Structure formats: structure tokens, C-alpha cells
Amino acid sequence: MIAIDKLLNTGLFAKRALKLAATRAANLFTGSSRKSQIVSASALFLAVCAFGAAGVAPMAPDASELPVKSLVMELDLPSLAEQIATLEPVPQNYISEEKVRSGDTLATVLQRLGVNDEAAANFLRTDKTARNVLQLKPGKKIQVQTAANGELQWLSAMIAGGRDSPMKNIVVKRSGDTFKALETSASLEKRVEMRSGEIRSSLFAATDAAQIPDAVATQIVDMFSTDIDFASDLRRGDRFNVVFETFWQDGEFIRAGRILAAEFQNANRTYQSVWFDESGSKQGGGYYGFDGKSLKKAFLKSPLEFSRISSGFSMRVHPISGQWKRHKGVDFAAATGTPIRAAGDGEIEFVGGQNGYGNTVVIKHWANYSTAYAHMNRFADGLRKGSKVRQGDVIGYVGSTGWSTGPHLHYEFRVDNEPRDPMAIDIPNAQPLAGAELQRFRALANDMTHRFALLSPPDRNISLASK
């Protein structure tokens, strides 16, 4: 109470002093001398300070008068035995990965992987599935998990498979003292990549510099070899763009796939092609120019994969009649039973015996083209008039029926039913796209044109020539 009264009195005094100082200040500026003005201003300043000091004076009691309370809490410490138990060693497993090196053996690879397990090594050598790991090529990866003592827990590797399953995974797992090997199809991620290159010395040097796989470079050669002689036609500064598939697993490049589109600038001309998926095609599709015209030749040069020409398209003495007459086709000598392939897409127009031709098949192709195959030993199963065939389909087997002196295939290429020399005629390209297929193709071609524009230099001004 005393402190509060003091505070109130002090505040009242300061308030009065401030009022008095204000009154004197008013008088100060109404005609008093300069000395009186200075004295009055100082008094006013001191009064303000006194009032401010009174305004901020503490109202709380002294800290020594505050109550103090002590808190006591017991903490439970963990058991020392439990802490020691958590520090006891536990089994440790280790995962390692290595790439196969040139000259590696199973022993050297396992040693680098930290595998010290004779039972596992024996299993990998003797099991029919597991020993495929030994076929790994340099650069391929092997992953293992081992115990601290080098005992193998599992092994995983990817190897090349067959034609229908290009890649497969081999996994070897341990169960107690036994092992089991599993083989599964590899799940690959397909990517579409774009590359551009410029010829400085050779095509393969340029593709290496552009980080293009050799398999893709080989496809480039095959694709444009009928227009460009890659041994003599290339010039420094020639350019190429290519869009192609690649396949990956777990971030590792596995293999290159098909070229989806490519263009090659050579001697101020640009050749282009694009892959188009075709329903019903044996190959799944084919390459076309950007105008929708197929780049595939409509007819095979030879209906037999391996053979030799025994008689050409010319006048000759018939081996049976002895008469000098025109030979209307080409004879391919081959062993009895050799498969005969359809030279092009078409429809079976005739199948059966035909006098001196023996067992004969005639195929009607698009426009006015047809082909004939004679002296067959037998026909392919299910072949009948009206059947649709695709280029490369087996239609029969080499024989010696009809007027024949030995097993061979008599092959005729006809235009408007008139025989022509299949070895000399300018083989036309396959039938171009039309209708809905052409519309679908144009959308794809536009996308590839945009990709090429992104890859090509901006100042290109070259005439285009579809391959």
C-alpha cells in the first residue's frame, strides 16, 4: 500500500509539474526574454521525463517475495542386460553386383562377387537351367546375395533367349542346403530414342560418335543400300537422322530394336523411310516412303532360299523332246523337298497337275502380275484355290513331276499372262497404302517429320527423294 501511494503521489506531482511547465511555456513564447525561454523549456523537458518515469515504474513485488516450489521426478533407466543384448551380433547379408569380363570363368566371377560356396558353384555347373549363367557375354551383369561367410543366398542374371523370347532372367535361390533355379521371361522397358550424325570419315565412325548401336547402324545400311553405295558415295558433311527402339532392364541397356524412321542426306538429296505396322503382315509391318509407297520389293528374286540357276530364260533345246524352243521361266536346281516360297503377296489362282508342268501353283498378285511354280513334289498343307498367301509363305516343295529330268523348280514371272525374265525385269515395289491404312500412315509420317525437324540443322534446304 505504501508503494502504491508513493507511486500515485509521484504521478500526481509529475502531472502538476507538467501542467505548470506547460503554463510557463505558454507564457514563455508570449513575450518573455530569451533567458526565461531557455529556463522554461528545460523545466518542461524535465517534467516530461519525470512523468514518463512514473508511467513505467514496476508494479510487481520483488522477485524475492515470489513463492518457490521444487519438483522431484524419478526416471526409469533401461536394463543394462537389455542394452548388452541389443549389441549382440546378428546375421548380415551382402548384395554384390559385377559385370562379366572377357576371359572370365565361373570361378573368377564368383570370387569377385565374394561367393565362397562350393555347393553353389557345383549347382551352377550341373543344373540344366542354372548353367545358362555360364553363357553370359562380357559386359552383362550378375547380382548375388551372400552371408558374411560367403555362402550364396541367391543369384540373378539375364541371358539371351531364343527368337521368340530374346531375353530371359535366371534366378538361383538357396533353401537350406538345396538350390533351385528358375527361368522367367525378362520384363524389358522399351524406349524410343532419336539421334543425329554427320559423316566425317565413315558411317560407323559417325554412328559411334552419335552413340548409335552397331545394330542400328547396320539397319541404316540395309535400308538405304539400294540408293547409296556406302563404300563410295558418302561425302564429308553428309548427315543422317534416325529414330529407333531400345530395350532396358533396371536402367541397363539390353539391346537395340527396330529403326522406326530414318533419313539420309547424300549429295544434296535426302532419302527417307518410316516403319508402319500392318495388320496381316508376316513381318508385322514394313518400311514406306513418306508418300505411302512401300520400300519393299513386291517380289522375291528367288522363291528358294538356297539354290542355283540350272537353266535361264532363253531359247534352248528341250531336254525331253529334243526340240529347240523358248524356255519361259528360270529353273532353280535344288534337292527334293526343299521349301518353295511365294514370291509375293497374292491369292492362289491354280493348284494341281498341269501337263508337262506337273504339280503346279499359280499365284495372282496385285495389278497384272502373276507367278507360276512347277514340278513340285507336293503342295503345302491346306493350300487351295482362293487361299491368301503372303510373301515368303511356303506353298510347296521341290520335286520332279511332269516333264522333268531331275528335282528342280521351274519359276515363271508373268505380266498380263506373258512370261518375263524374273532375273532381268525391274521388280516393282509392293502395292502402296490406300484408304484407312493410308490415313493412319500419314499421322505417323507427320510425327516422324516433326522429329526429323528437331534433329536437323535449321538451314537445311534439300530436295527430298523417298527411298
Question: Your description of this structure?
Answer:
With 467 residues, this protein is an alpha+beta fold. The protein folds into four domains: 2-54; 93-185, Nuclear Transport Factor 2, Chain: A (Roll), CATH 3.10.450.350; 189-288, Roll (Nuclear Transport Factor 2, Chain: A); 308-420, Glucose Permease (Domain IIA) (Distorted Sandwich), CATH 2.70.70.10. 24% of the residues lie in helices and 33% in strands. It is built from eight helices and 23 strands. The protein has helices spanning 2-28, 34-55, 80-86, 106-112, 118-126, 203-209, 214-224, 435-455, and strands at residues 93-99, 141-147, 152-160, 167-175, 178-185, 189-198, 239-249, 252-266, 269-277, 285-288, 308-311, 315-317, 324-326, 330-333, 339-341, 346-353, 359-364, 369-379, 388-389, 394-398, 408-415, 418-420, 463-466. The strands form four sheets. Strands 11, 14, 15, 16, 17, 18, 19, 20, 21 and 22 form a ten-stranded antiparallel sheet that branches. Strands 6, 7, 8, 9, 10 and 23 form a six-stranded mixed sheet that branches. It has a five-stranded antiparallel sheet with strand order 1-2-3-4-5, covered by helices on one side. Strand 17 and strand 18 (369-379) form a beta hairpin.
Name of the level-1 CATH class of the largest domain: Mainly Beta
The CATH architecture of the largest domain can be named as Distorted Sandwich
Count up the domains: 4
Number of helices: 8
Q: Uncertain regions: pLDDT < 50 for 5+ in a row? A: 1-14, 28-32, 53-57, 460-467
CATH topology of the largest domain: Glucose Permease (Domain IIA)
How does the major sheet shape up? 10 strands, antiparallel
In what range is the share of β-strand residues? 25-35%
Spell out the CATH superfamily of the largest domain. Answer: Glucose Permease (Domain IIA)
Structural class: alpha+beta
C-alpha termini separation:
111 Å
Shape: elongated
Instruction: Provide the gyration radius in Å.
Output: 47 Å
Number of strands: 23
Amount of helix? 10-25%
Average per-residue pLDDT, rounded, comes to 79
